[in-house]
């Protein structure tokens, strides 16, 4: 009888630890992992900001980025009003300004489309 109870004691230790391992796994997949993904996408959004982007702040202010530093953003709200915000106050990018390379590519594409012979052949 003593041998039967000694073998069952080690199984009780693993049985007591199993619920804690399962709780940690549930917390990881339901809370920790989604928060890490959300933080990663937010950091990517803040690092991809550029001059000319139309954005919305956390407080609901809409404007166009006029100046950009490592930690501050100057928004042009209208022709005369410029407001300085922390970079972390930006909520969403409403319309992204094209990159310099995209502008040049679009200009070359327009020039090619303008050169059409009267007969309709290129």
Can you walk me through this structure?
The protein is of the alpha+beta class and 122 residues long. It has helices spanning 2-47, 100-114, and strands at residues 54-57, 62-68, 72-76, 82-86, 90-95. A hairpin with a 5-residue loop joins strand 3 (72-76) and strand 4. The chain is elongated and about 80 Å long. The model has no long low-confidence stretch (mean pLDDT 83).
Largest sheet: 5 strands, antiparallel
How would you describe the shape?
Answer: elongated
Poorly predicted runs: none
**How is the quaternary structure best described?**
single chain
Structure keywords:
alpha+beta, 2 helices, single chain, 122 residues, elongated
What is the secondary structure topology, with strand pairs?
Blueprint: H1 2-47, E1 54-57, E2 62-68, E3 72-76, E4 82-86, E5 90-95, H2 100-114
Antiparallel strand pairs: 1-2, 1-5, 2-3, 3-4
């Amino acid at each position: 009888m003593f041998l039967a109870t000694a073998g069952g004691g080690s199984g009780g230790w693993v049985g007591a630890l199993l619920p804690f391992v399962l709780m940690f796994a549930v917390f990881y997949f339901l809370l920790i992992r989604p928060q890490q993904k959300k933080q990663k996408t937010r950091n990517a959004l803040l690092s991809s900001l550029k001059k000319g982007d139309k954005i919305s702040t956390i407080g609901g202010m809409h404007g166009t980025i006029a100046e950009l530093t490592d930690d501050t953003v100057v928004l042009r709200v209208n022709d005369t009003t410029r407001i300085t915000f922390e970079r972390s106050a930006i909520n969403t990018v409403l319309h992204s300004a094209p990159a310099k390379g995209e502008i040049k590519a679009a200009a070359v594409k327009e020039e090619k489309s303008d050169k059409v012979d009267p007969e309709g052949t290129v």
